[in-house]
Amino acid sequence: MLAGLIFWTSFSVSGGSNIRTDDSLLQMSDLIRDRGRENARLEATAAQLRTEVQQLRERDAGADPAGAERLAAQEAEAGLEEVTGDGLTVTLTDAPPDAVPLLPDVRDPRPDDLVIHQQDLQAVVNALWAGGAEGIQVMDQRLISTSAVRCVGNTLILQGQLYSPPYVITAVGDTGQLREALDTSPAIELYQLYVEAYGLGWQVDQRSSVTLPGYTGSTELQHATPVE
């Protein structure tokens, strides 16, 4: 019955396509690693420029205190300032490569069944936003409105940096609402079926006080289409 539920839920969510595979992206892994190294170099240069900008802002703040206050409020809303409060940490981990079915009548796992995929990370992030998160951090990076979670194989690409599992997602907000959003997400419900069947990692920890740093990368849009 569980095997049938997994197949039916997967089909209904995917519309008939395979939603737990990244085969079409694997050939890009070498290029992405090269770009990751270049992004690291550019980020070091950008960090130096941000320091210079901050020094200029502090120098000019005295000339227009009201303007400086409005700018600070807008930066906080955009995720550019740190946020502190109660929160949750969600950790997703690959199953062991030699994993076997943990429940009767479940087929032997394929490689795609044993790793964390892009849609799994996106499901957690989307659920936390829906639960009213004031801020979200994936690994060591704060998310903003233009952040995109992308995976190649079992490697996470986030804002030019590469990460391997386990993946840690931290959110600040009302912990009750955040937990409810995780518990009621259909996409996470599907992931939980694989947790039970093959041992994918899933752990939610409550944090009494957590501080997320402000986002420090570029906020410039590369591509945009106006809303009609």
UniProtKB/TrEMBL annotation:
InterPro entries per UniProt: DUF881 (IPR010273)
Short name of one Pfam family: DUF881
Keyword terms of this UniProt record: Coiled coil
Domain of life (superkingdom): Bacteria
Coiled-coil region: 32-59
Gene3D superfamilies xrefs: Protein of unknown function DUF881
Family the entry assigns: Belongs to the UPF0749 family.
Stated name of the protein: DUF881 domain-containing protein
Organism of derivation: Streptomyces spiramenti
